[in-house]
Structure formats: structure tokens, C-alpha cells
User: Fold this.
Amino acid sequence: MASSKPLSRFWEWGRNIVCVGRNYAEHAKEMGSTPPREPLFFLKPSSAYVREGSPILRPYYCNNLHHEVELGVVIGKRAQAVSQEAAMEHVGGYVLCLDMTARDTQEECKKKGLPWTLAKGFRSSCPVSDFVPKEKIPDPHKLKIWLKVNGKLRQEGETASMIFSIPYLISYISDIFTLEEGDLLLTGSPKGVGSVQANDEIEAGISDILSMRFKVAQQTRGS
Assistant:
């Protein structure tokens, strides 16, 4: 049964943020990793959402905050063990997302064999753009996503370069746990990830469809 809540404001009520890692071969390479044979994914809490007009906060424990620009898929209909062929029927629309990452914290977590939650799940770690209904993007695998920091291009990639397609990801993940209406699926970042500092301005966009801007600010402990 469809929710009465507007999908266009999914960030206010959606439950899950599912992030796919290393879904672009060149990004996997720059991170010193081999491309995965199966999707690698992790979760962010819904409190990670941040919208334009509010800053991206560099956590008080982080000294190396990285940007990762990604195409986001908003689930429009509950998906449980769906086939690849039927997967796109469960898509409600798309957004541009940033998977902000405390890279130094992530490296420490990797060394200790710990989960990445401290590195990936902090407040404001998932900036999102306005919602785009799926009818306005006939083929999400034919888009260009890009990101600039202080006006300089850092990331630019084609969604056609994804290792695992959107239907494959939805089918694979929905076999493991149910994707609910309003959930967000981040599909991975192209190469060019890099560090940002307090007062930097991030601008990112999808082809000629939309763009968004965020300022970076330093979090102080207890704030």
C-alpha cells in the first residue's frame, strides 16, 4: 500500500539510506581496491540527510573529510526479492547525493576490522538535491554527474560506467532485506574523490537536469 507521504520529500520520512561502494572501477582503483565481484554496501542513518541552506559538518573527530558524488535512486514501491526485470517498477525517482566520508576515520576502521559507521554515518553525511520523478529521466544509465569544490572540477563521471546496474542492485539488495517506499539507494561514486575544508563550497550536478550547493563547516564537540 502506497504511503500518503510525498515521495518528493522522502528525506523527511524515509527509513533507510543504502550506499553502494566501489561501483565505478576507476574509483575502486584510486582507493587501492580491486573492483568487487558482488555489490559492497553499507547503511547511513536517516539523520544523515542534509538539504541546501544547511552546512555539511566536518565531524569534530575528522581531519580528512572527503566528497563522493553519487546518483541516488528513491524507492517508490516496496521491493522484496524482486527480479532485475521488475526492479525499475519499484523506482519512484532520482536525486543527486553526496556520500561525505571521514576518510581518516575510515582508514582506522579498516585497519581494525571495524564497521564504517563513524566514517560514513555522521550527521550531514548525506546531502541530497531536489527530487526528480523517474519520468523525467528515461534512462538513469545515460547521465553525467559532476562535482566542483570552490569552482574547480573534481569529479565527473558517466553513470554508464557503473559496475552493477540499478536493476541489479535493487534485485540483489532486496533479496537480503526489504527496500521500503522512501528508502534511498546511493549507486556509487566516480573517480576524483578528495578532501574539503571548513568554508569550502561544494557544487554538484546531474547533466543539465539539476545542481546543488553546500558550504562545509567545522563541527565542535557537543554541537
Notes: The mean pLDDT is 96. The two ends are 39 Å apart (CA to CA).
